[in-house]
Structures are given as C-alpha cells and as structure tokens.
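Hey, I was hoping to borrow your eyes for a little while. No rush at all, and the record is pasted right below:
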Amino acid sequence: MSKITEYSATNVVPEAHVDAEKWNRIPSDKEVANTILALQRRGIKVIHVKNGQNALDILKTIIPQNAEVMDGASVTLVEIGYREFLDSGQSGWKSLRATVHAESDYTKRRELRRKSMTAQYFISGVNAIAQTGELVACDTGGSRVGAWHFAARRLILVCGVNKIVPTLDDALSRVREYAYPLENIRATKKYGESSKLGKWVILAQESEEDRVTVVLIDESLGY
C-alpha cells in the first residue's frame, strides 16, 4: 500500500463535498485492460504495477543516473514515496526542482521553472484517463502540465487506476467535479491561495516513440 498523507484524498474528501463513489472508483480488470490497449494505440507506453512501491521501483529503473529530473506537484508522487526519495539525495538524479527552489529571486526562479519544462525526464500525475485513451490534467499556472505537449524529452505520468473513466467528457467532468475541489482545499491549506481551473492539457496522441510512459498503479491514489 502507498502512504496516506495529510493531503491524501481520504483526508480531504470530507471537506470537499464531492461524489467520491462516482469519481474515485476502482475499475474492473476488463476496464483497466481496455484502457491500457487504448493508450498503447495512441502511442503511449504503459507499465502496469500493483502498488506505489512497485511504481517507485520502476522510476528508479527507467530514469538513469545523473539524468535531469523535474516533476509537477502531485499528491500521487508524494504517496508513492517519490518526493521523499528525491529529496533524500539518494536518487543520483539532478533535481531541477531543487535548483528552482534554491533561487531566492522571484524573476530568476520563474525563468528557471520555465526552463525546467525541457527536462530530460518530467514526472507528473494525471487527473483523469478516458477508457478511450485520452489523458487529462489541469493546473492553475501550467507548471504541472507545461512539459506534456513537447518540451520534456521523456514524460512519465504516474497514476492510480481510480483515475479511469469511460469517456473524454467524463474525464473533463472528473477534473471539474472531483479533482479540482480537492486540489482547491489542498492549495488553500498548504499555500494560502485557492486553486483555479487555469490551464488544461489533453494528451490524445504521441507520435514520438517511447516519449510518454504511463505508470498505472492498481491503487486509489491522488486526485
């Protein structure tokens, strides 16, 4: 099992007044298998694992030593232990997030954040996956999704099967009706600022072989 944190859904849902039964369900094995096939048809590699520890082990395997790594804010990445591992200094990776946060000048920090979108490896979560193969995420300012389209050399998206919904329309609705209310509570508590449905991304096709990998976990994780 992955780690339950202060901002895990189980601790935030009671305040959010969302329909968790509808938007945070564990799909059937058939639904998961169909989703994986749909993603693969869209040029997206899928690594299917049982739990968060397996997912972290996969990241350790596929990201080489000394690689530049940047990540978007993600409850899922915290829950699987990625952030703790990265911050421990034991990864052997070059953390661009650490470089960004070490810069005290606001203007310079924003420029470093923009440049970090071109990292060799960009790790992020996902807000919804349609069984038809589209991946959807939304972020207030875009730092979590800016690398998705093209900038990052390799994009690794880590998510639980609870993000799977039937259609693209359902995926968009899941963000509005479930992920956003939970993220708004998290952002308000952690940063003192509300979240916004600011910048959306729909990844519907990847033409560059092996550029995008989804690590799909048989657990309920993140928002």
Summary: The mean pLDDT is 96. The longest helix spans residues 168-191.
